[in-house]
Amino acid sequence: MSDILISPALKKTSLRLCGATEDSAFARKLLIFVALLFLLLFLFAPLVVVFIEATRKGLPAFLASFHETDALAAIRLTLIVAAISVPANLIFGLAAAWAIAKFSFPGKSLLITLIDLPFSVSPVVSGLVYLLVFGAQGLCGKWFSAQGIQIIFAVPGIVLATIFVTFPFVARELIPLMQEQGTVEEEAALTLGASGLRTFWTVTIPNIKWGLLYGVLLCNARAMGEFGAVSVVSGHVRGLTNTIPLQVEILYNEYNSVAAFAMAVLLASLALVTLGLKTFLEWKYADALSGRSRRH
Amino acid sequence: MINLSVDRQNAWRFRAPSVIPGFGITFGYTLLYLSLIVLFPLATLLWRSSELGFGGLYAVASEPRVAAALRTTFSLSFAAAFIDLIFGLIVAWVLTRYEFPGRRLFDAFVDLPFALPTAVAGISLAALYAPNGWFGAYLAEIGVKVAFTRLGILVALIFIGLPFVVRTVQPIIAELEIELEEASATLGAWRLQTILFVLLPPLVPALLTGFALAFARAIGEYGSVIFIAGNIAYISEIAPLLIVVKLEQYDFAGATAIASIMLAISFIALLVINLIQAWSRKRFGHV
Questions:
Q1: The domain that contains B125 carries what CATH number?
Q2: Which of B267, B104, B81 is nearest to B165 (CA)?
Q3: Chain B residues close to A294, C-beta within 8 Å
Q4: Which residue in A43, A73, A82, B227 could disulfide with A223, CB within 3.0 to 4.6 Å?
Q5: Rg of chain B on CA atoms, in Å
Q6: Is position B6 within any domain?
Q7: Taking Cα atoms as reference points, which of A39, A248, A45 lies closest to residue B128?
Q8: Do B19 and A118 touch (CB under 8 A)?
């Protein structure tokens, strides 16, 4: 509006006044140059190099890497692990967000802090704690091995470690979002006679669906890409307990660079798709996502 | 009076009354799942390290190889977080305040270290900085060796920590009020004075938080570091790697000791972050 009211002459002076609150053209260009150079060297280059190294010996060699049985087994295991751990944390995230956002009770902020806890634990330590619980000398390890169930150095251990490191993703996206939305719409639905479940499906879910998708997206990316925690509990049995990141490590240490980077291309592509969808959601549905959780 | 009696009626209740159903089952499930997945395993670690006692913890921490790894981890994490602090501020400033082609794309790319699996970052950084790599070849000409040295660890930790600083500072830069700058300028301040005394102070809490987050992440980082570090004992070994080394030697007590030291450091970092944010809320009215 103010643009219309200000005469051209006045606008010129106000522009000059703006100049006092802006950096000089030189400083501006220098800062942009420094920032972009830093991003290109430190972020962009490592990404590009993955694709270049993978195709260094041509496309056939790159494609051949995916015909190895170990590679296929690693891909299958990664998909299985994500297919278990993401829904597990999704259900937990919904339950936790419902309890925390729709009700008031003492100790709530402590509970939120505890849910965030896995993010501040080193991945290697996350793997180690499961080793201490379920390992041969562990608390529950003896009981499980007596039942003939192997957890450590087997798929269940990998799933558990993945669930641990991806634990907070969905919950920490949903809790602030549902807190912002309050309980008014649910109360309206309930007073109009809807059942609790129907209220959840027809009122709550549509309100949180984009936030939910956002959380699931980040959770899935981490679940498929986790290395440290999974590395400790996996035992590195080829074709059995190797996920894609572990397969990358093995191939790289065997100096099979093309195959290692070919596996890495899968994960880098997953990262790019995740970033793309995430940016799209943030741009298109900014209002439907909570403002708090832009960092992880 | 009526209110009072209602209050008294509910005084023994755990949660405030509500018409919304499902508290019992969701709260119960939350507690159960949290306890089984997070609290019980972490408690096991604390219990195992308490068996060692302070003497045992100190004995492990003062083993020369462990002490060297802890020193490497802390000093390099600090240095990396500091470099992230400076460049993160510049990146956040440029992405928020200036308009230039490709700004959105660069903004999206800041999150890359969050999205890119650490093992992938690790091998690609190693390939970049290896003596025959893109950057490594040039750096070798001027006599700088990055891959398989401490400098390599630093590069990986800078990579992993950058988004923490940028994403913490960005919203605060966006909220800076132009009126303050105008007032400062009309009162005769140089641009540099405005930047140092008007623009920077409200950013300090966010910068400190970003620094602490980057530092905490760097201390625990494993995947992106081990490929480029070379892992030479006493020189370029990091603390998380030493946990893995101890586990491979079936030295569970040693691994537990290092893990609990690292866990303690992360909790202290978490506490410091919360204190900074509480102070910031009081001082500036935002986080």
A1: 1.10.3720.10
A2: B81
A3: 167, 171
A4: A82
A5: 24
A6: no
A7: A45
A8: no
**Candidate from B119, B128, B185 with C-beta closest to A249:** B119
Number of domains in chain B: 1
Confidence of residue B233 (pLDDT cuts 50, 70, 90): confident
Would you say residue B140 lies in a domain? yes
Sequence-distant (6+) residues with CB within 8 A of B212 are: B81, B269, B272, B273, B276
Mean pLDDT of chain A, nearest integer: 88
Report pLDDT digits (tens) over A10-22: 444 444 445 566 7
Is B229 domain-assigned? yes
Residue A19 is predicted with a pLDDT of 56
Vertex A197: Cα angle to A194 and A200 (nearest 5): 90
Interchain pair B223, A245: CB under 8 A: yes
Mean pLDDT for A138-143 is 81
Region B235-254: mean pLDDT is 92
- Domain enclosing residue B133, as ranges: 25-284
Give the one of A45, A231, A252 whose C-beta lies nearest to B128's C-beta: A45
Is the dihedral angle over the CA atoms B14, B15, B21, B22 positive or is it negative? Answer: negative
What's the pLDDT score for residue B82? Answer: 96
Tell me the pLDDT tens digit for each residue of A46-103. Answer: 999 999 999 989 899 899 889 889 999 999 999 999 999 999 999 999 999 999 999 9
Q: Is the pLDDT of residue B103 over 70?
A: yes
Residues with Cβ within 8 Å of A209's Cβ and at least 6 positions away in sequence, in order, are A288
Do A156 and A197 meet the contact criterion of CB atoms below 8 Å apart?
no
Dig out the tokens for B103 from the structure: 């700004």
User: Which residue of B lies nearest to A184 if distances are taken between CA atoms?
Assistant: B20
DSSP secondary structure string, B153-204?
HHHHHHHHHHHHHHHHHHHHHHH--HHHHHHHHHTT--HHHHIIIIIHHHHH
CB-based contact B219 A105, cutoff 8 Å: no
